[in-house]
Amino acid sequence: MSAAADPPPIEVHAGEDVDLSPLLTLPRAELITRLAAIFPAAAGSASRLAAEPPALRGGRAAAVARLAAVDPPAYARSRNHVDGAVSRLSPWIRHGVLSLAEVRDAALARVLRPEDAEKFVSELGWRDYWRRVQAALGDGIFTDIESPARTARRPQPLAAMPADVLEARTGMACIDAFVRALHDTGWLHNHERMWLASWLLHVRGVHWRAGAGWFLTHLLDGDPASNHLSWQWVAGTFSAKPYLFNRENLETYTSGRHCRDCPLLGRCDVEGSYEALDARLFSPGTPPRPPLRIRPAAPWVSATTTHDHRRPLVWLTLDSAAATSPAATAHPDAPRLFVIDRRWLASERPALGRLAFLCECLADVQGVEIRVGDSAAIVAARAAAHGCDAVAVADTPCPHVRRAAAALSATLPVHVVACPPFCDASRVDDLGRFSRYWQRVSRSALRPTGS
Ligand SMILES: Cc1cc2nc3c(=O)[nH]c(=O)nc-3n(C[C@H](O)[C@H](O)[C@H](O)COP(=O)(O)OP(=O)(O)OC[C@H]3O[C@@H](n4cnc5c(N)ncnc54)[C@H](O)[C@@H]3O)c2cc1C
Fold it and tell me: Which CATH number goes with the domain that contains 195?
């Protein structure tokens, strides 16, 4: 069947439990066309996505190929440059196709001394850290963690993304290029994310929640822990000060490619010294605030049982949408289920590219069923249909999954399977800042699994 064959739409009605598993066998172009029919509200051009080879394709084969290219010393030298030797592994790590431990082990295997991989491993540490903060705060990551570190001169942040930004016609060549890249590829370099977020928050006065929501829709690695907490870090509601950049900084790390032809060169929003920008954007003085302490969450036990179950249903979630899910590897013969949760569709509004990447990851999972609806209700119904006596799910800090597991556990034992450990966090008693966390865990994070 060709991409233009106009397949019949699968209508998704509220409360209906639809099996989307047949989608996983389709070639990418048809997959995209079908996804566009099933999720007509999903952002992104189906015809463009179907016609072009993706910059990043879901699934284990692409992940392993990219992992083989990780070069920790080159990474340490060049990671801040947009053309630097960054790994681009985030979409696969986000979906659990690669665990942080596996990526760390691969990086350590490529250097003579662990110190030569420290920069790379510490960046993996940021992901681990954000997840621990999410586990500790739950839905608290969606509101200001601290009062703003500086008082903005603009009093009322904008609750919605400005149209000129979404249409990539701000006139700032750099910003418009970042917006187009985000919409077209679903991925941005870390520095580009920081510049875009900083400009939106501090220059345009957008509320960080609006920016974070927009990123989640489009990023293939979209993950509330890393995303919302990074936006709060840029905003200064989870950091010592707001993150600012100036044109010189951007020009250095982009080799001037955006500034060269920018119509606003010399008079753009981020022209000038940091002191001048700071004075323009923030009122003088730093509001007092107490040092932040965040106690790590207790292990997630409320919904677990330690009993052995002969026939569990493996419930794959966004954190473990892969054959490598710890729950799947612990129960190799059990039936597997992934639920595209309606609340996730409503809250993150995933773009077509994101949905396609997810399906490509799930296509590696032998015999997986994909359903759309309410996670707890569908997991319970499918467990009954398969004659399962329990549910196995990989550990996750996601509050939606934890709530659904808690609801399920009223009628069915839920076994939470631990992820491969990235570090020993038993001595971490405060997650208020990354530096304090990293001081406690870096030695163990720099040791390969099993050593
Ligand atoms: C505003 C903003 C929003 C972000 N949203 C997300 C998001 O939704 N999902 C996401 O995975 N990352 C997010 N990040 C973090 C970071 O930008 C990406 O993880 C990174 O750029 C991915 O590219 P890479 O795989 O080449 O990373 P590399 O630099 O090669 O690092 C390797 C891996 O380490 C992890 N990592 C590296 N830096 C960070 C970081 N600062 N925070 C958390 N993990 C990190 C990622 O898993 C990454 O794949 C965000 C950063 C900012 C500033």
Answer: 1.10.579.10
